[in-house]
Structures are given as C-alpha cells and as structure tokens.
Design a protein that fits this description.
Elements lengths: L1 H18 L3 H23 L23 H30 L5 H8 L2
Helix pairs in contact: 1-2, 2-3
Length: 113
C-alpha cells in the first residue's frame, strides 16, 4: 500500500512537469516528484532488525548495524533538491519582471521575434 502512494507521488510530479503550463506549477511538480523519489529510497533502505551505527561507552557489541551511507545520500539529495528549487525560483522571478504572466506559451510568444 505504501509503495502505491510513493509511486503515485512520483507519477503525479512527473505528469505535472509534463502537462502544466505555468512555470511555478512545474517547479512545485518537480518538488513533488523529488519528494516521491526520496520517499522511495527511504522505503527501500528501511529494514527492521538493525540498530543505528552509534557505539556507546560500554563498548561495541556484535549486532547488525544499519548502513549509514543511504541516509547520507538522502540528506545530500534533499539539500541539492532544495538548492535547485531555489535557483529555479530565482529564474522565475527574473522572468516575471519582463513578462506579465508565468505561462510558457505566453512567455514564448512575447520573446519570439
């Protein structure tokens, strides 16, 4: 059931990027899709029976530790996604100064010689 929600989130963002004509809605759709992809990786990486890889002062015991690499990759993906979204919003702000609308067809029509 959870897999279906993750896939639906990814597809909702993907089709939003394809079919929305407003630039702001495309950015939101891309954010929704990246959230779905991150949720998918978290879903795949989550497994029961593992403990966090933190060793306490009593010493190391022989237990199965969770791999910290997927967590680091997901955190990096979140930071990169946020920075890309901020950069795209700055581009949309610059476009909105020259154009009265954020519709792609109107922007293309206004800027075509």
């Amino acid at each position: 059931m959870l897999e279906a929600f993750v896939v639906a989130t990814i597809l909702c963002g993907f089709f939003g990027i394809l079919f929305k004509k407003n630039l702001l809605m495309k950015i939101f759709s891309m954010d929704i899709m990246s959230t779905g992809v991150i949720a998918y990786y978290v879903f795949v990486a989550s497994r029961g029976g593992f403990v966090s890889p933190i060793v306490d002062a009593n010493g190391a015991e022989k237990v199965a530790y969770a791999d910290p690499v997927p967590q680091a990759v997901i955190l990096t993906a979140i930071v990169i996604g946020f920075s890309i979204q901020a950069l795209m919003l700055v581009g949309v702000m610059k476009l909105s100064r020259d154009n009265p609308t954020l519709e792609i067809t109107e922007i293309e029509k206004n800027n075509t010689p």
